[in-house]
Amino acid sequence: MRRAIYPGSFDPVTYGHLDIIERSCKLFDEIIIAILVNPEKRPLFTIEERQAMLLEVLDEIEAGRCTLRVESFEGLLVRFAVERRADAIIRGIRAISDYEYELQMALMNRRLEPSIETVFLMAAEAYSYVSSRLVKEIYQLGAAVQGLVPPSVEARMKQKFQKE
Ligand code: PNS
Description:
Layout: E1 3-8, H1 15-25, E2 30-36, H2 47-57, E3 67-73, H3 77-83, E4 88-93, H4 96-112, E5 117-122, H5 132-140, H6 151-163
Parallel strand pairs: 1-2, 1-4, 2-3, 4-5
The site of 4'-phosphopantetheine has 9 residues, from β1 and α4.
């Protein structure tokens, strides 16, 4: 039984994230999608909202026999991974610009916890420029985010920005 952690901010989840989760399902029996609780960041969505959004869209994934779980974590990622008896950490790489930071994190995590491997997966080219940050930015400036995030996420973004 192979278990992996897919960590991130997911503020909000995009089709790029879903693509990585689907690909991970081909390699692992269980994926724990782990939302980082980061007191230093001011996210658009609360942890509960991000968790609910992920649960809403996971049905769209062709998971096969792979089990998908959504959790949140605080503190060191490798500590959480060890607690959950995970074999690997999954990270998506979009472009070469992601690589430097991701390599640095992977090597630091390996130093902290040599038993856990980081697995890099490449998202589909169609999502190579999609990030939660840009999705929020263009939406706030009046552009459509259709095709970048699932409709349920778009609806929650609409609600959120209407309230603000
Ligand atoms: O979606 P993001 O914001 O790119 O995800 C970054 C994340 C959550 C993977 C990273 O910030 C992280 O692992 N934070 C937990 C704290 C930690 O373990 N830091 C040391 C990393 S070497």
